[in-house]
Amino acid sequence: MTIRYPNGNQFYEQPASSNTHNDSIDFSNRGMTLEDEINKSNQYYLKNGIAVIHKKPTPIQIVSVDYPKRSAARIKEAYFRKASTTDYNGVYKGKYIDFDAKETKSKTSFPLKNFHKHQVEHMRQCLKQQGICFAIIKFISDQSVYLLKATDLIDYWDQQETGGRKSIPRKVIEKDGFLIAYRINPLLPYLTAVDSFIE
Amino acid sequence: MTIRYPNGNQFYEQPASSNTHNDSIDFSNRGMTLEDEINKSNQYYLKNGIAVIHKKPTPIQIVSVDYPKRSAARIKEAYFRKASTTDYNGVYKGKYIDFDAKETKSKTSFPLKNFHKHQVEHMRQCLKQQGICFAIIKFISDQSVYLLKATDLIDYWDQQETGGRKSIPRKVIEKDGFLIAYRINPLLPYLTAVDSFIE
């Protein structure tokens, strides 16, 4: 699929690596979801002893299970539950890392409805415990990915609750967030952005 | 259900609290599993702004889902997957907390087969990132609960892999671990044990 910038120009992924030999660039991330991209990056961080960060399993409400003889238990009826926390957490340089990843088709802002109230409350609680909390936001239109600190997200969330706007302007994310440029390895080097705001 | 010590004496739960008025002691934890007890304790820690620690959802492999009109998606076929990490993690005083909870019916030792290789590897990785890792072990026979540091667990695990014993003697757990005495709130004050070995 050809990806185009809003102005119609075709988008080419530019790994922010010094290695620019075309024959060694891995374009296998084409068509990946943000979740895939982060999982791949986390695998790299794990393999290289840099950080231990995992996506939590999807919460499921199990209603009925079959226990057939001689084979694995089979779940016959279950439903998806709303997550009460964020999707990703782990440890990096002794620090607790906690974040959620969201994609948006919007070109000019990030709609706050992408978050549930529970998730924002969870971030607030983690911040109180000195955790490193943030959101990774991807604008699908031009494949730009930003890290936005939870404190900034919460500011907008709270304004929304008292009648403020229901989205964060992209300009604010560009100014206050951290652009995560795609690389070969890790694909999304978001811990580099984390380095820039932890002491 | 009446719980008895190995010598036949009946077991009464003794909350390690200064409050010994019988009419205010909460015996509602009778018959709870260790998981229930820890979840209840985590709720207390969360509500009181002491720590943010959650059990991860059970990992499920989804095979088939129905999307009926006008109602929630229904999972029709799914299977339990082996966890690749521990069950609990979170943040406490800025530190990353990671642990697993296991019950054993054995009276004299804790069988290492209660852990999967993946979980032990995960603990090793978290330790490398300066995470606080441990196991909470409950001897069902007399309702004793201990916190055992991951480093101690890993010592025995590695010995087992080179032909050593397949369990940790209870005496070692009593000596090197930390007894967690039941209280009213939190029911299992395991973070008090954590306090004693983090600086």
List the helices and strands and how they pair.
Two copies of one chain form a homodimer.
Chain A: H1 34-47, E1 52-55, E2 60-66, E3 74-80, E4 88-92, E5 95-104, E6 109-111, H2 117-128, E7 132-139, E8 144-149, H3 150-161, E9 167-169, H4 170-176, E10 178-179, H5 190-197
Helix pairs in contact in A: 2-3
* SSE order of chain A, one letter for each helix or strand: HEEEEEEHEEHEHEH
The outline of chain A comes out as globular
- The proportion of residues forming helix of chain A, as a percent range, comes to 25-40%
Could you list the spans of chain A in which at least 5 consecutive residues all have pLDDT below 50? 4-27
The structural class of chain A is: alpha+beta
State the helix count of chain A. Answer: 5
Name the strands of the widest sheet of chain A in spatial order.
Answer: 1-4-5-7-8-10
**Averaged pLDDT of chain A, please?**
87
Q: How many strand segments of chain A?
A: 10
CATH topology of chain A: Trna Endonuclease, Chain: A, domain 1
Largest β sheet strand count, sense and barrel closure of chain A: 6 strands, mixed
Content of β-strand of chain A: 25-35%
CA-atom Rg of chain A in angstroms:
19 Å
- Please state the oligomeric state of the protein chains shown: homodimer
Greatest interface and its participating residue counts: A-B, 39 and 38 residues
What is the total domain count of chain A? 1
